[in-house]
Write a structure and sequence with these properties.
49% of the residues lie in helices and 27% in strands. It is α+β, with helices and mostly antiparallel strands. The strands form 2 sheets. It has a 7-stranded antiparallel β-sheet. Strands 1-2-3-4 form a 4-stranded antiparallel β-sheet, covered by helices on one side.
């Protein structure tokens, strides 16, 4: 069974176990096995090298003191040796501190770069949402009950279309696991005066207002429960708030709710977007803040 202990002080470290012994100074590491005489000889050589690396300033100081007239083994020679050794240790500690400081500065710079990237992405998202909600409010004002369009059913009027959307349906993340809403197709969402309709690359799904029982908002999607279908599905886009406001507009035009509530909701969301966008922009100018 292997068993051992070890430790270190600053750049100097050492350890011993039932299999052997080792040590090191700075980037230099040496070790040897207890097995056989060769292991002892190698260990002795390694110990001598480590000792020299650790105490060569002391040896050099005493040698220089003797060369300048101090008696070998005298107090003057000892003082000269330990003075050089102290400078050596201080230099190693200084390098260690400088290295730690440089590492900390690099980490802080990396963290700041990440914060800047997040702020940039959030600002771009807010600018897109701002433009989308302005377009939504303008559409509500210009044609409050929708417009005729060849892209929707003949008996329906188009309200707004959201591009780069996804159809979400319950799927298991793993076999027999709990089901969560996952994208299963990509396309566009048409909101009309009769229904929310997803038109994708593979599927077309609609949720009629007269069949709609519940509308539930998820973290990145809106799902609809309808009376004519057991499967609870929904849609996702960059802005869930935009989907929610457009759905509320459609339900209002259909007559199940007050259509003016949808415009009031859109205006409130736009004001929140404007406020956050000003905050993010100010944070960019000051070069700080968290996202």
């Amino acid at each position: 069974m292997k068993f051992g202990v070890g430790g270190g002080i600053g750049p100097v470290r050492a350890g011993v176990s039932t299999r052997g012994v080792g040590g090191g100074v700075g980037p230099l590491s040496l070790g040897g096995s207890w097995r056989g005489t060769g292991g002892y000889v190698g260990l002795a050589i390694q110990a001598a090298i480590i000792g020299f690396v650790a105490f060569w300033p002391y040896l050099l100081g005493t040698w220089l003191a003797v060369q300048f007239g101090a008696a070998e083994g005298s107090a003057a020679a000892e003082v000269a040796g330990w003075v050089l050794e102290a400078f050596y240790v201080a230099g190693i500690l200084a390098l260690f501190v400088m290295s730690s400081r440089a590492k900390r500065v690099a980490e802080e710079q990396a963290a700041e770069a990440l914060r800047n990237k997040r702020r940039g992405l959030r600002r771009m998202q807010l600018e897109n949402e701002q433009a989308d909600f302005r377009s939504l409010i303008a559409a509500m004002d210009e044609h409050p009950t929708g417009v005729s369009s060849p892209l929707v059913k003949k008996n329906e009027r188009a309200l707004i279309c959201i591009k780069e959307a996804a159809l979400v349906e319950p799927r298991s993340a793993y076999r027999n696991g709990p089901k969560v809403m996952k994208p299963v197709d990509h396309g566009v969402i048409w909101f009309t005066d009769h229904a929310v309709r997803f038109v994708g690359d593979k599927k077309q799904v609609e949720w009629r207002y007269d069949k709609m029982i519940d509308v539930t908002r998820g973290p990145d999607h809106l799902r609809f429960t309808v009376s004519n279908r057991n499967l609870v599905s929904g849609v996702a886009a960059e802005s869930v708030s935009l989907i929610g406001a457009a759905t509320k507009w459609g339900i209002g035009v259909f007559g199940r709710e007050d259509a003016s509530d949808a415009r009031a909701l859109a205006v409130d969301v736009l004001q929140d977007i404007d406020t956050e966008l000003r905050s993010v922009t100010a944070s960019d100018r000051l070069g700080g803040g968290e996202i």
